[in-house]
Amino acid sequence: MSAAHQAIRTAGPKLAVTALEATGDTSYSACGIPYWVAGDVSSADALVARTAEQHRKAGIDLRLGATATGIDRQARTVTYRDAAGEQVLGYDELVIATGASAVVPDWAVDPRTGQRYAGVAPVKTLTDGAAWLDLLAGLPGGGGRVVIAGGGYIGVEMAEAARRRGHTVTVITRNRVMSSMDPDLSARIEKGMHEAGVRVLTGLPVVRLDVADGRVRGAYTADGELHPADLVVLALGVTPNTAYLDLAELPSGPSGALRPEPDGSLADGIWAAGDCCETRHRLTGTWTYLPLGTHANKQGRIVGTNLVTPGALRFGGVLGTAITRFAVDTTYLEIARTGLSEHEAAAAGIEVTSLVTEGSTASGYMSEADPITVKLLAAPSDRRLMGAQIVGGRGAGKRVDAVATALWHGATVDDLAWSDLSYAPPFATAWEIVQVAARRLADRL
């Protein structure tokens, strides 16, 4: 919808835009769903940025419940299915922005019915969010047992939501909690979750479920241990919605995601944007699959502009900048990262030097002061920043944006150490913690 609105804004009423949406919802914050489940957001409506009526009022022919099933590049047509059956729609220019769907493993599905077992669900759509509110509300008053399969962003956020609602929570992950971060920072997150009463099991994926009468009763890990569960959250990532396309005819990667050019073009008359796409990593130059709403919105705007004025905008790549939190009772952790981890740098053949620095989010004599840990990575060959990871209390997480901006512009650790950043006792120390970290890493280099 970002592409659709930008195209109309750029071209005016001479452009006829039709949007096909498989579900009944448009333009909502999927990232806000765990906070709706936790009780921080009042309703699904609060997560909706634009309703279907608002899209139509802007001049977009929005068709809900319309699932694309194929494209004919020679005839320039899209085949889709809706309540009336199969339809064919012609186009001059086609934008593929079909996003991604939650990974649902075979062990979560009843082979007799092809449906997920009762009590097992992902957290991706507004329908999922509403289902989780009902599922959690249906647990015993004294608290139920929730197993979360996956330790990434959604896994951590749903662990917070379930604990805050008084339930017993076990997080089971095949790697580590927040495995996009290095082990030394990931360990700090796991420690905080343990302190908040969450059991964390790492290196042990869920391999099958214990089921009675079609409803989940527990989850088995690879070591054969059964973990009792009234509910199981599927937080195992997403997969691009490209199965309806002939990927042999379109640029695509091993993830099944499309590989558009920086201007969003994919093939003659075809464009692509969002979670169905891979993007170039700004530091390594390699293709990577990082489905995030921030990228999707930018890419949509670029495609919408270039549809009308070709070559006007280009997508500059990604750094993997991301942030979340885990907040239960007295435990409060902000978690953020940007650039490369040590593992990612090694995989890209980039030598890095790293350093972990402990500090405070505010001057120590202020009540706002919370602990913060900053890990910086840099290339010893030219001292360029390569990445940052932050775990800490209130005010810790958004500090990653200063580092992300430095990374975006190819800054060195020295550039960051001597930058003019803000200071007042409630907000920072006189030497801002990310600058202390940069200065110490510069000294080590």
Outline the secondary-structure elements.
Elements: H1 2-11, E1 17-21, H2 33-38, H3 52-57, E2 60-64, E3 67-72, E4 77-82, E5 85-90, E6 94-96, E7 100-102, E8 120-122, H4 126-137, E9 145-149, H5 153-164, E10 168-173, H6 183-195, E11 198-202, E12 206-212, E13 215-221, E14 226-228, E15 231-234, E16 238-240, E17 265-267, E18 270-272, E19 279-280, E20 287-288, H7 293-308, E21 322-328, E22 331-339, H8 342-347, E23 353-360, E24 371-378, E25 385-392, H9 400-408, H10 413-417, H11 433-444
Parallel strand pairs: 1-2, 6-18, 8-15, 9-10, 9-15, 10-11
Antiparallel strand pairs: 3-4, 4-5, 7-16, 12-13, 13-14, 17-18, 19-20, 21-22, 22-25, 23-24, 24-25
Helix pairs in contact: 1-7
Task: Summarize the model shown.
The protein is an alpha/beta fold. It has helices spanning 2-11, 33-38, 52-57, 126-137, 153-164, 183-195, 293-308, 342-347, 400-408, 413-417, 433-444, and strands spanning 17-21, 60-64, 67-72, 77-82, 85-90, 94-96, 100-102, 120-122, 145-149, 168-173, 198-202, 206-212, 215-221, 226-228, 231-234, 238-240, 265-267, 270-272, 279-280, 287-288, 322-328, 331-339, 353-360, 371-378, 385-392.
Notable features of this structure?
five-stranded antiparallel β-sheet; alpha/beta; 445 residues; single chain; five-stranded parallel β-sheet; 11 helices; Enolase-like, domain 1; FAD/NAD(P)-binding domain
Strand order of the largest sheet: 8-15-9-10-11
Give the count of helical stretches.
11
**CATH level-3 fold name of the largest domain:** FAD/NAD(P)-binding domain
- Evaluate the radius of gyration: 23 Å
What is the name of the CATH class of the largest domain? Alpha Beta
CATH-level-4 superfamily name of the largest domain: FAD/NAD(P)-binding domain
